[in-house]
Amino acid sequence: MGGETGTEVDQYGVVGHPVARSRSPFIHGLFAKQTCQRLAYRLYDVMPDDFVMRVTGFFAGGGRGLNVTVPHKPAAAAFAHTLTPRAEQARAVNTLAAQADGSILGDNTDGIGLVRDLTLNLGLVLAGSRVLILGAGGATRGIVAPLLDLAPDSLMIANRTADRARVVAASFADLGPVKGCGFHEIEAHPWDLVVNATAASLTGGRPDITPAAIGANTICYDLAYGHEPTAFLSWALAEGAAGAHLGWGMLVEQAAESFHLWRGVRPETGPVLDVLKG
Ligand code: NAP
Hints:
The chain is of the alpha/beta class. The chain folds into 2 domains: 3-108, Leucine Dehydrogenase, chain A, domain 1 (Rossmann fold, 3-Layer(aba) Sandwich), CATH 3.40.50; 111-249, NAD(P)-binding Rossmann-like Domain (Rossmann fold). Helices cover 36% and strands 20% of the residues. The chain contains 10 helices and 12 strands. The protein has helices at 24-35, 51-60, 73-79, 85-90, 110-121, 138-148, 162-171, 231-238, 248-263, 270-277; strands spanning 10-16, 39-45, 65-68, 82-83, 95-98, 104-107, 130-134, 154-159, 178-182, 193-196, 219-222, 243-245. It has a 6-stranded mixed β-sheet, with helices on both faces. The relative contact order is 0.13. Bound molecules: NADP nicotinamide-adenine-dinucleotide phosphate. NADP nicotinamide-adenine-dinucleotide phosphate is lined by residues 70, 110, 113, 135-140, 159-161, 164, 197-202, 205, 207, 223-225, 247, 250-251, 254. Residues 70, 110, 113, 135-140, 159-161, 164, 197-202, 205, 207, 223-225, 247, 250-251, 254 line the site of NADP nicotinamide-adenine-dinucleotide phosphate.
């Protein structure tokens, strides 16, 4: 990860474990081509114990920026010298950027990525709506504040481990009407938007919630992405949901926000999203 000194091309990458299947090099490669930026973007598979040493070496060697994925987002928040307000709120960083003075800035673009997909790509209006988030992990911490910015009527965080949902909700309570509960405490009426931010989709499972949460006007969104609907989205459609969306748009939009932070240029996301969705 070190040894980049002296290269002419600005160095970027994604650090995670495992990271081999990340689509980020492909996405940033398309962004670079589209915006005529010369850069290299690589995968860095780094074990948690090596994170600080490897990332320090990357930046000491002239690296310009890193995306950070599971399990390193909290470690990246501790590593950065300064945090953007949204990274501070999330206590998780998915983007590190070298600054002119040599310091490292930490940002979290996951939430704005989701919001841009929901509002710009999918055309949803969330002001006054009732939003249910399933899961209370790192991804949820990144999306709560940007969703509250859209002025929903209420935002419920429900998690398999109820206390975790309550703790996360309490930490955002000064920003808007957010509460936490367990899956079995979810109010049994249709929600306007249900976001699956659990890791259940990664192993073919789905959160065990009441079908009463899904109605004819409910839009369901899974942060996971792939070429088949997740178990959650298939279930939601079978229960009569109005729409079901995988997390491809969030993935591309969060990457575009990182690219903008690093290069000062905002790539067009539509063509990249079309390629990825196939
Ligand atoms: P995380 O911090 O490990 O949190 C995992 C969450 O999932 C916890 O709330 C956990 O509940 C819950 N969970 C795990 N297995 C479950 C199951 N079988 N049933 C119900 N709940 C379960 O993970 P994360 O970083 O938040 O990531 C969550 C998901 O978001 C992943 O699929 C990730 O790939 C995706 N993601 C997508 C994007 C994108 O750009 N599209 C960006 C970020 C993340 P407990 O607390 O009870 O253990």
